[in-house]
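Researcher: Structure for this, please.
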Amino acid sequence: MSPAHTVLHTVFGYEHFRGPQQAIVEHVTDGGDALVLMPTGGGKSLCYQVPAIVRRQAGCGVTLVVSPLIALMHDQVGALLEAGVEAAFLNSTLDWPQTREVEQRLARGELTLLYAAPERVTTERFIALLDDLHARGQLSLIAIDEAHCVSQWGHDFRPEYRQLSLLHERYPDVPRIALTATADELTRADIVAGLQLQEARLFVSSFDRPNIRYRIEEKKKEPLAQLVRFIEHEHPGDAGIVYCQSRKRVEEMAAALQDAGIQALPYHAGMGAEVRQQHQDRFLREDGIVMVATIAFGMGIDKPDVRFVAHLDMPKNIEGYYQETGRAGRDGLPADAWMVYGLQDVVNQRRMIEGGDAAEEFKAVLRGKLDALLALAEATDCRRVRLLRYFGEEYGRSARADGGACATCGNCDNCLQPPAVWDGTDAARKLLSAIYRVHQASGLSFGAGHLLDIVRGKDTDKVRQYGHERLSTFGVGREYSDRQLRGVLRQLLALGAVGVQRVQLEGSYSFDTLTLTEGSRPVLRGEQQVLLREATAQAAGRRTRRAAAPPVAAANLDQDAQVRFINLRAWRAEVAREHNLPAYVIFHDATLAAIAERNPASLQDLQGINGMGAKKLEAYGEDVVRVCRQ
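Model: Predicted structure, token format:
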């Protein structure tokens, strides 16, 4: 075997590289620069960890890994130590004696990988450490993880990442690898420019995560009930993440899920650091915890058995949606990406863009990114096809009579239950006419609720206050339900045929109003058709909660093997507590399932099981065999 394959097998316990991993590893090991785009769960870490070990064995010294995430540093260093690799991190969780000890080990050449945050890497003290290593020929490789943070167009821009270009300027002979799971073409170009990677080889993996089922539903009046129903019926006892837009909503949803009997914890930037860390540790170390969070949570979370990611509020763009949903099913087993969104989500996102202080050029980019997400949400065709196309990838091309592409993934809601479509053009023209007539009559703009009341002919106090019952558009849409018209209005906002303006009244009170745009004209003239999915019927009643199923990894095991799997999980939990590590750092569920199925009687029987490297076989092999014999 090549040195890289030997490391993969003996250290990490895997027989083969996945996808483009081998090409990346060989290129970087040979001293080439690389920009790697690989989906979450695709094995990005191995793309720099294997070269780091191989180059260390060849006498090239230490690999610096730049990461913005304390949790990721801790878990990856723990996993490397478990595999027998000398690794350490430098971050704010260490006191001065601990920091000094790591620096001394670094200077003595005892480390294979060192993890550090970008803020630390660019300090004079740290640069002095790197200068010394470089002068002695012991700075082997620089890996920049979460590289999208360097881009102002990315969903998680961090200004300190821009300063990392000094690493190339200072150490031009040291190979670099930049990695990210999420970047459209604009973001990729910004990464290349920001990190001076013009000569780097680009590796783009498929963005497809076939194990994730994408589902987007219309938000009902009680989205909490939708979420509870989803968890109780499809993921009882499973680990999951629920994303909300505001801190207040996070707190409310976490409490409501707890009241419904679901183990839920809140997480947002407004909480104390100690409480946030406690909640994150519980999520990583315990089974079946649901984390309710803002986007402050998640990046760098390596927990492989997250079975669902739910969005109760719509993200800002497809990059954010893809990054967040990608935290489900990192183990390659079935998982769900579930989202509800409604009219107010669209209004809120439009308002945040238009009300910001950014330059018009930047706002235009943000609008385009939001429009792409809205198109995905409103789509009646395959969601996976649209999602991958956004990242420049065509899914499952097959011959069609007209020479085009025809593909369905069979694992999104639109493919599994193709929605009925109705022509909402007439309703759209009536809504746009109502916006025009209201503004013409009173010189004012109003919000969605009032406009819908006018179109449906509702006799409300507000309608009478402004004399809007006398408008020619009053009651022109009586044949449509409130829900249908909300769907039409949502689509008009998605198309840009309706705009959003925030009106500030005396004091602190403000509200959103709807206005016509240039995009209104083709719809009003009947030149643009508005097709919408049929609104699905409200689920009747509250169904009985489904009993928790066996873990997905053990679903295909026979009864005896499932018992072994349960016993192995219990043993793993004890070891993880002793080592103060998440259980998956010891062994993934998939590894335990493979052990349970093989039912080993000796250490020899454990050879060749994925995830069972030489160090782990030595450390845990006898215990694993003992547990299986029980």
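Researcher: Any notable elements?
Model: The mean pLDDT is 89. Residues 3-204 form a domain with the Rossmann fold fold (CATH 3.40.50.300).
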